[in-house]
Amino acid sequence: MIDQFLLGLGVVLQPHILMYAFIGVFIGQLIGVLPGIGAITAISLLLPVTFYLDATTSMIMLAGIYYGSQYGGSIASILLNLPGTPSSVVTCLEGYPLSKSNRGGLALFVAALSSFAGGMVGVAILVLAAIPMTIIALRFGAPEYAMLVILGLLAASLIGTGSQIRSFAMVVLGIALGLVGADQTTGYYRFVAIPELADGISLVSLAMGLFGVSEIIRNAAVRSTPGRVMSIRMRDVIPTRAEARTLGLPILRGSSIGSFFGALPGTGAAIASFMAYAIEKRVSRTPEKFGTGHLPGLAGPESANNAAAQTGFIPTLTLGIPGDAVMALIIGALILNGIIPGPRLMVDQPELFWGVIASFFVGNIILLLINIPLIRLWVLLLRIPYQKLYPVIIVMICVGVYSHRTSVTDVVLTLAFGILGYVMKNYRFEPAPVLLGFVLGPLLEDNFRRAMLIYRGDFTVFVTRPISAILVTCSVVLVVFAIRSSIKARRKTARVLS
Amino acid sequence: MQGVDQVQPSIAKRASSGGVLLLIGLIILVVAWNYPVGKLTQMGPGFIPRVVGFVICALAAAIIAIDLSAPSHARGEKMHWRGLIFVSAAILIFASVVDRVGLVPSMFLAVAVSMLADFDARPLNILVYATLATLGGWLLFVVALELPIPAFWR
Question: Where, by residue number, does the polypeptide cross the bilayer (chain B) (predicted)?
Fold first, then answer.
């Protein structure tokens, strides 16, 4: 394990790869700071660029954007009360009161430190889990893969906020979009309305439309005044000894919670940070201090979302099953680079596999080092109004999509998905599950058909094979739990209203 | 306007969200109806599309039922017509001219048109900003990344 990690470190420390790791985490932190642009948008913007890089470098860069944005997200939360990423919503609760009482510098420092600690714990667990997980994954057959995809899709729609049935409907809609094009086994054309669709819908178009264009449509014509950014005094950045002592346990708890939810397919950094906050509040001896700038309430969630951002790569790298929409994009980038994600990745491409993991180690160190010194740059960025930003993003989307396959149709499709994403959200449907369904759908169809072919249409195979049986049990438990809690919630609202 | 008493939206409005989804499900079923379905042991290309179509219809029906029975719901947002129109126009113009006039003029047009969505944009502002953004785009895409797209008409 140590040997493999050192092999990976050797890959990352080559100057040109190190440069792309730096670019990745820097862009990640940047877009995390800017509210309105998330990791999904940034990664889909950079997908076309990765065709000019090799697979290892592009993975390292795209992954850097993802976990870098977790660091950046807390900056806008603390200084402006504007969460830059979904997982930094809870950071506002304690971070903004701190910066209102002129202790923003301290909040930023604690956030950066907890993020770093959480990220490192996440990386350590990833390194420890990688080999055992791959050994298990190598024994996966078609039924296990099919069940794992189903479990992941169920978890993504049932856990978390928002209407569960609506999220699940969007997952299925994503699967439907993934059907467009030639059938993988027979080559039969499905839903090919125009000849350009024969190769299927491009992931780049779908992602940029659903997340980039739709957000611009929503925000372009909204008058906004940039918020007042709190001033920072660099002198009072370092916590006192007594304050530092209160941080250890929250960071430890947050990292463990984050590592768990990150590794679970379908849940990720956002859920992890909410859970960590709730748990900190419950175990605290002074729960009344929460909401007034209480440091443990900042440290716990911050370490949780960063740990989750790292352990989220466990299912992605060892099984080839993305846990959330961002991971789905990263998997998509691998496939576009001609690499089949899955348990063979570690065996066949050890440089890529361990290089990417070691890059997380290096990336977290870079992020910690650039976070505080560049704080003036981030504060400056927060003053840019959205109205100056969106025309540039539109151009980047247009050029990015067009250059991918030199296809005008793709550009028009991107707009169509943008309008779809916009209308969907007006109807209270979330776009992220669509992307997950789109990437996982073909995997599900392929493995389900293969399982049925091999086991002659015998459904019992899903419960007689041990690993598959465990996955079925998890899925059933998840569904039962979700139905029970939604019935309970419904009774509660009915009681309140009657 | 917030604060105004929430009036129950009409039944048609409340059902519209699931209704659109039902329509999508039906379209999938109609289009995929003639695809060879095959047997469970030897699925044809039409098997999964049909399953997906039925599942979407079922979920849509459930969503309609929930939306109609639920006592109250947050009303959908109002449409952002201005953003929708100018963002769409910018992308469509880019798509229709990039083949003929090359990257740089298309980028200029896309920035300029999309800026019209902003209430506060003035003609001179647009001209200056679009020029600057195009220059930046040219440096990034043509000079730095060397994309294989002609910068000006061929």
Answer: 18-35, 47-68, 80-97, 126-145
